[in-house]
Amino acid sequence: MIRLPDSFEWLGDAAILLRNCSKEERIKLLRYPKPEGIIDIICGPSDVVIQLADPFVAESVPEQFINEALTSPAYEGAQVYHRFHVRYGGVDTDLDMVSSLLGCDEEEVIRLHGENEYEVISTGFSPGFAYLSELPASLQLPRKSIPALEVKKGAVAIAAGYTGIYPRKSAGGWWVIGYLHENDADNLWRWDRNPPGLLQMGDRVGFLRTEGGGWA
User: Fold this and answer.
1) Quick one: how far is CA 27 from the chain centroid?
2) pLDDT, tens digit, for every residue of 52-95?
3) 184, 83 contact by CB (below 8 A)
4) Within 10 A of 95 (CB to CB), how many other CB atoms are there?
């Protein structure tokens, strides 16, 4: 068994949970080069899961990775900023229901969402899905009581204090308010890129209202 601080726990026999990590620690763990034997780093809003290739990975591999990553100099690369073109409202969105529940018109929802800048604070749910904070308090709604069975790729949605973009068609319980241009939607997850997911911890995201064709 790896000798880890008390805040580290085993998840089964091939994953390690690190609780209450700071933003800086999560970015270090996510971006530090993974050695052979570690296949994924999954970041939540405060916790991190380190997934091992199998239960027989040498104990020294994750132990050394954790120690080196957390003691490495703070990440000093230029902050990555993404701006996505969005078609707000229309077919297959919940914008009318969102405006009704919030007690404001659709244009106010669009304005509040589009004028804000967001930060990727965690990834998960599905490959390439990023949780973006801080959604303005005036736009915050709980998740749908009954999730939709199918949400299209490129859907821009909100729930609780987050906004997110669906990188592929899937079920989902968030309120869809618009869609990315299909070129932006296709770029969210690409197997020919390392890492495949476009949005990474610490990235900044902005949305630009755009009309016309080419929507996901």
Assistant:
1) 13
2) 999 999 888 988 899 888 888 766 555 789 999 999 998 899 99
3) no
4) 18
Q: Is the peptide bond before 211 cis (omega within 30 degrees of 0)?
A: no
Same domain, 53 and 109: no
Q: What is the 3-state secondary structure (H, E, C) of 95-110?
A: HHHHHHHHCCCHHHHH
* pTM of the entire predicted model: 0.79
**Burial level of 177, CB count in 10 A (0-12/13-18/19+)?**
buried
**Last-in-domain residue among 39, 71, 103:** 71
pLDDT averaged over every residue in the chain: 88
Q: Which residues make Cβ contacts (< 8 Å) with residue 54, sequence separation at least 6?
A: 14
Residues 148 and 166 in one domain: yes
- Inter-CA distances, 210 with 53, 86, 89, 94, Å: 43, 6, 11, 18
Range of the domain at 12: 8-71
Number of domains in the chain: 2
**Same-domain pairing of 102 and 191:** yes
Instruction: Residue 65: give its domain's CATH number.
Output: 3.30.1360.40
